[in-house]
Amino acid sequence: xxxxxxxxxxxxxxxxxxxxxxxxxxxxxxxxxxxxxxxxxxxxxxxxxxxxxxxxxxxxxxxxxxxxxxxxxxxxxxxxxxxxxxxxxxxxxxxxxxxxxxxxxxxxxxxxxxxxxxxxxxxxxxxxxxxxxxxxxxxxxxxxxxxxxxxxxxxxxxxxxxxxxxxxxxxxxxxxxxxxxxxxxxxxxxxxxxxxxxxxxxxxxxxxxxxxxxxxxxxxxxxxxxxxxxxxxxxxxxxxxxxxxxxxxxxxxxxxxxxxxxxxxxxxxxxxxxxxxxxx
Length: 280
Prior knowledge:
Blueprint: H1 2-20, H2 39-42, H3 69-73, H4 79-86, H5 93-99, E1 132-139, H6 141-153, E2 162-168, E3 171-177, H7 182-195, E4 200-202, E5 210-216, H8 219-231, E6 238-243, E7 246-256, H9 258-265, E8 277-278
Antiparallel strand pairs: 1-7, 1-8, 2-7, 3-5, 3-6, 4-5
């Protein structure tokens, strides 16, 4: 048994030896010459397009469509000529891709690009809103105090509003009445017309219906008027105060915008139901 095993091994070695020497090519054994240079180099397809993934810089082949002068002038070597011109056998594609190692370079690091600062955008200021003069009058003392406080809270500039005092003097009249009804007042009017004395109706609360034979700014002037109508035949007239002296306040807003006007008119109790009017 051992002799047969040894004989089989010797026969296998002889067959392998004959195949590696090319004696069995006619029987379908691969030609050993095709696996070595220069025939192996001649079988390469476009070796110039081989690119090292981690090779040194400058080793990349030129792109298609831009061949070098050497490529244009010299045809690719084939056969033994390729092996002679190369000098040393070229490595297989698999060896180039797998076995290549990165080549360190001493090139200095790229300098950082200077930071660019965007130029500031200058916008033109918006034109000021148009302003107008507005006013309101007839505020009482309590209303004026409340209005002052509200106007300060609005933040209007100094001189943006003015609240001035206005005094109304008392009014005195030479008075006839008070009559019980309009018929009695009509009879008195007829008598005054006969005497040639001017008069007007008095509608003040507490004095109507009545007649005023003269209107005066002081009680002394009214007394003199009473003496004049008495000399002309009037016997039932007397001096009374039709309106007492009063103090009111007037609001003036010399230059406010439309938005400020709307805010002031919406102050409610501080405006006492009054609306702003354009300055005359």
